[in-house]
Amino acid sequence: MEFADCKNIAKELEQFNPTWYEDPIRMNSPQALAEFAASTSVWTCASETLGSRWPYKDMLDRDATHVVMVDLCWTGG
């Protein structure tokens, strides 16, 4: 699925008032996630698939995520 498709789907789903979109795109680009987050009124969630606390900080600093779902075993406690 292309990035533009993800943004279009997110826009269409807004009418159902989801709480957040969890990992709406691959979690390997904070900049792309920030662009996605800016394209919708629904919060974006970065889940426990990130390997340490530093990717979460980078995403929060870029306003790429509004909700962080952390697995303490994966992120170093």
UniProtKB/TrEMBL annotation:
<dbReference type="InterPro" id="IPR029065">
    <property type="entry name" value="Enolase_C-like"/>
</dbReference>
<dbReference type="InterPro" id="IPR034593">
    <property type="entry name" value="DgoD-like"/>
</dbReference>
<feature type="domain" description="Enolase C-terminal">
    <location>
        <begin position="4"/>
        <end position="77"/>
    </location>
</feature>
<protein>
    <recommendedName>
        <fullName>Enolase C-terminal domain-containing protein</fullName>
    </recommendedName>
</protein>
<dbReference type="InterPro" id="IPR036849">
    <property type="entry name" value="Enolase-like_C_sf"/>
</dbReference>
<dbReference type="Pfam" id="PF13378">
    <property type="entry name" value="MR_MLE_C"/>
</dbReference>
